[in-house]
Structure formats: C-alpha cells, structure tokens
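User:
Hi there, any thoughts?
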Amino acid sequence: MSLRRRSSRVPQLLLAASLLGALLAPPAAASSAHRSPSGGTGGTGEGLPLRVATYNIHAGAGMDGAFDLDRQTAELRSLNADVIGLQEVDRHWGSRSEWRDLAGELARRLRMYVSFAPIYSLDPAEPGGPRAEYGVAVLSRHRIVRAENHEITRLSTQDPNPVPAPAPGFGEVVVRVRGLPVHVYVTHLDYRPDPAVRVAQIADTRRIMAEDRGPKILLGDLNAEPAAPELAPLWRELTDADPGAPTFPAQDPVKRIDFVAVSKDRTGVRRAWVPESLASDHRAVVADLLLRRR
C-alpha cells in the first residue's frame, strides 16, 4: 500500500466533512452549525492569536468508565479553543459509545466545523447501516477549506496477527485564520511499550508535514513522553508547547503523553496549560499561539 498523500477538498459551504472518501456528515450535522462563533482571533502587531487544544476523549467515557457526552461537551466548551484535535473518536463504532457519531455530535453542540479521519472503517453491522469507524477528528471555529487522511505506519488492533503496514488516520486540515492558511494535523501514535512502530510513525509524520508550507500545528496523543528517544526527530522542526504538567491518567496524572507542537518558523507559543478534569481518562492540553504571516 502506498504512503502517498490522499486528499479531498472540503466544499466551502459545507460545515462537516469526513476525510475518508470525502464522505459528508449527516445533513443534521451540517445544518446545525451554520455559522462560526467568534473565537477572539483578531490580528495584533505581533501576529494572529489562535487558541488550540488536544484531547483524547476515550470514546466518550470519563475516568469513571461511564459514557457521558454531556460531560465531555461541557469540558470542551470550557476550553474556549478555536481548534481542537480529538483522539479515540467513535463514529457508529459500537455499544460503548451507543453507536453514535461522536465527532458530528460534538461539532453540532459546540457549533464548530468538523473533519473526521478514520483509522478503521468496518462494514456496517446491518445491511444499509452506517460504517463502524474509529479515528481522530478536528473541530474548528474557522472554516475548513481542505482535508486529508494520510497513511502512516500502524500495527492494527483489528488483526489477530498484525504486521506494521501503512494505514490511514493521520488527519490534516487547512483552516484560514483571517486569510492565513494554517495546517492542523491530528494524530494518535502506537501505544505499545516497544517504540519501533512509533519510530516509523514519527518518520512518516515528518515527511508528510515537510510537504506543507506556512504555520503548522500538530495535536495528538503520542503515547510517549517528551524526552522519549523516538520523539527526538520531531523537535528538529517543531516546538513543544510544554504546559508544565502531566496529562495521563486524568486522576493523579504521572506523565505527559498529549501534545501541542508547532512549527518553529511561523508559530509562537504564548502559554500552555493542562486543565484539571475527569471527563476522560486523559487531560487536555491547551495552548495560546501567535501565527506569523511571514
């Protein structure tokens, strides 16, 4: 399977798009967020401010293991972020998330645009039903003008005898912030103790991001701590927006495996922090950025 980029342009009049085959979200999802709320993204002499966040939503379940999308909606709303990267997102996946489209529902509730990038897309449980999908997503107050679902090396959790192979689920969107195109990527790296697959994933990530120009923002659960050797190549081009606090597990966290990272040349970090919350088994990372046009 090729690792070449696959892209699908998002029509400017649609508010929710999937990255797999340019599938559109249900009409209700598109009609419910007909305008973007104000996000405080005005220009300044130093640059364009943008608040971003990354959050592993644990398929809608909190630290207590209970599925509660109302609780997670409230947590996401409290972040007041312009762009949010989500991991462990179910879309009609199974009973644990009540077969619901979590990305679409969160977008409607928060009045944001959404782009979903499935890692897995399985045949429906019943003929004519929606596909069972699991992956990552981007929510944005700014219109999504392009979306792609990139393949990176993965070790499948759906195959009883997996081998590392290219698979989708490295999501990218381009949003326009006061006319400035900004590349936002969302990812979820391999969780296994052996870092070999993460080493390959970081190499894939750097190769894909190198093809783009302008401000770049990487949001994700990297399943490794900042000083992990496999992450070291990432810091050649990107700055870690260090919030100075751990993110996992959400209750009494002991390590930081969730990241906001930005391109060194076009993006500055004003501040970053980790809100306290048990709405997921991870805590979010939030960062206030300054985007430079040149």
Q: What stands out?
A: The chain has a mean pLDDT of 88. The chain has one domain: 46-289. Residues 46-289 form a domain with the Deoxyribonuclease I; Chain A fold (CATH 3.60.10.10). The helical segments are 27-31, 69-79, 102-110, 196-210.
